[in-house]
Amino acid sequence: MRLVFILGDQLTRGISSLDGIDPARDVVLMVEVAAEATYVRHHKQKLVLILSAMRHFAEELRAEGIAVDYVRLEDPGNAQDFTGELARAVARHRPEAVVVTHPGEWRVLQLMRGWAEGIGVPVEIREDDRFLCPPAEFARLTAAGKTGRMEYFYREMRRRTGLLMEGAKPLGGKWNFDAENRKALPRGHQGPQRKRFAPDAMTEEVAALVEARFPDHFGRLDRFGWPVTRAEALAALDDFLRVGLPSFGDWQDAMQTGEDFLYHALIAPALNIGLLTAPEVAAAAEAEYHAGRAPLNAVEGFIRQVIGWREFVRGLYWTEMPGYAETNALNATRPLPAFFWTGETAMRCLAEVIRGTRDNAYAHHIQRLMVTGNFALLAGIAPGQIEAWYLAVYADAFEWVELPNVHGMVAHADGGRLGSKPYAAAAAYIGRMSDYCRGCGFDAKARTGRKACPMNYLYWNFLITHQARFGKNPRMALPYKALAAMGEGERAAITAEAEAFFARMSAPEAPSGQLSLGW
Ligand SMILES: Cc1cc2nc3c(=O)[nH]c(=O)nc-3n(C[C@H](O)[C@H](O)[C@H](O)COP(=O)(O)OP(=O)(O)OC[C@H]3O[C@@H](n4cnc5c(N)ncnc54)[C@H](O)[C@@H]3O)c2cc1C
Ligand code: SF4
């Protein structure tokens, strides 16, 4: 008899640990444990998503005749951590072996590696074959020079999958249509009504449990609308293909006040817990192109995220951990300001993105990268503190995907392993891609002075501070040329504004980190 241990982000019927299961003898183990809910204080919606999806998945397995030993959070005797619960289950079932699929986090892999010895039963850790590129293959591919960068890795994935290919050539004659995907929304544009999923009785029960057990975790629950079953996840994918995908490319980078979802896929939470798989969503998007329902720039842009970025960050995580998380190339050490949790800041762009994050456990890529991420980079926030925030607040955040995006793409803490230049921007970028600056009390055009937008002086201060590292980077030649053209006086004023800002940001009496005008 084997005990098949399934984790909360492994809710895929085809998961490798279920391969060859014998329903007559084997038992599936699923456990809800407080240690996993609290090692960072996850957003309430994220907890509800995972626990409800686990309970639904267990019911689906039982309906197939598979025995599931399911331990609920509130069950008496629950050891409240993976190792303790596995030990209790081994004592109950006396299996010959435990079978698990490779986890999504280094920390959990270390636990798994200790189980066989600690519990006295052989533990088979199977590869997670829901991804296109196994870590060993990633290491081989990226060691071979060019594919070390995402763009070349992505081309290789296109060749291997045959997605959007015409023989050996990319469809449409180009690998990448990104240049067409940077449009700003027309003023007052209304995004489409997106499909959300009303909680059923099981989700309501979990929501009450989460509210009672974790009342002080970030986020509101009344706007929960994530798919929690495979059927709902397929409906979410279908909604994206019909309503989002045709315009996904055009408005991929655009942001607008009150428009929390726009044309984005909204599938990452379902993908990352296993209700959908990357190959199936990429194939579904390609089919929309061939059916003439979505343009190439949109379909290519989406497929690049799914088979390019998603696979690339996973490969990077598993080939570079555990050392990857320890690097801090820019020596960033400031603490995360409290307003990341309260949203109380006069900087309208940040307030709006944090508001959406609190309401939905969601923000789209550019909001994460160019608003909250950009601020954290420019303000020199310690990488570990930014990472813990991102890991907690997004429903789709699992360390294998969150860490490279935050540590590498946002904080540039890996010294350029992920991106050859930091994603730093001043207010002009945010003003171009959103309507945030229009209603903001700060002056998006001013670099210094009482009303100057902090993104501006922090941006130029960042360039000054890191001139030795980035001054000769050809991709940063333009901003450094502009910096060189500035007078000494302006440079000194920028440094002084930035220092005063940092002093206010870390002052203990700062009211929730509020940065109001004249304060
Ligand atoms: C600072 C930062 C942190 C991020 N943290 C996470 C995270 O914890 N979990 C996560 O899944 N994504 C993360 N991303 C990537 C991206 O923001 C989300 O995947 C996306 O916003 C999810 O929403 P969506 O399904 O509507 O995606 P869309 O914008 O519609 O994109 C489609 C799909 O592409 C994939 N994708 C897009 N960009 C990336 C990327 N950079 N890395 C990996 N996959 C990508 C996702 O699976 C996504 O569902 C992060 C990006 C940044 C800049
Ligand atoms: S002016 Fe500055 S702080 Fe205000 S919304 Fe624009 S970028 Fe953000």
Which spans have pLDDT < 50 for at least 5 consecutive residues? Answer: 511-519
Radius of gyration, whole Å: 24 Å
Category by helix and strand content: mainly alpha
Compute the number of structural domains.
3
End-to-end Cα distance, whole Å, is: 67 Å
Overall shape: it is globular
State the CATH topology of the largest domain: Serine Threonine Protein Phosphatase 5, Tetratricopeptide repeat
Largest sheet: 5 strands, parallel
InterPro entries: Crypto/Photolyase_FAD-like_sf (IPR036134), PhrB-like (IPR007357), Rossmann-like_a/b/a_fold (IPR014729), UV-DNA_repair_photolyase (IPR052551)
Keywords: Lyase
Organism: Rhodobacter capsulatus (Rhodopseudomonas capsulata)
Protein name: Cryptochrome/photolyase family protein
Structural description of this entry:
- This protein is mainly α and 519 residues long.
- The protein folds into 3 domains: 2-126, 3-Layer(aba) Sandwich (Rossmann fold), CATH 3.40.50.620; 135-320, Serine Threonine Protein Phosphatase 5, Tetratricopeptide repeat (Alpha Horseshoe); 338-506, DNA Cyclobutane Dipyrimidine Photolyase, subunit A, domain 3.
- The chain has 21 helices and 7 strands.
- The strands form 2 sheets. A 5-stranded parallel beta sheet has the order 3-2-1-4-5, sandwiched between helices. The protein has a two-stranded antiparallel ribbon with strand order 6-7.
- Strand 6 and strand 7 (169-170) form a beta hairpin.
- Helix 2 (44-63) crosses helix 7, helix 5 packs across helix 11 (296-320) and helix 15 (383-393) crosses helix 16 (399-410).
- Residues 511-519 have low confidence and may be disordered.
- Residues 347-349, 427, 430-431, 436-437, 440, 442, 444, 453, 455 line the site of iron/sulfur cluster (SF4).
- It holds the Pfam family DPRP.
- One of its GO terms (molecular function) is lyase activity.
- This is Cryptochrome/photolyase family protein.
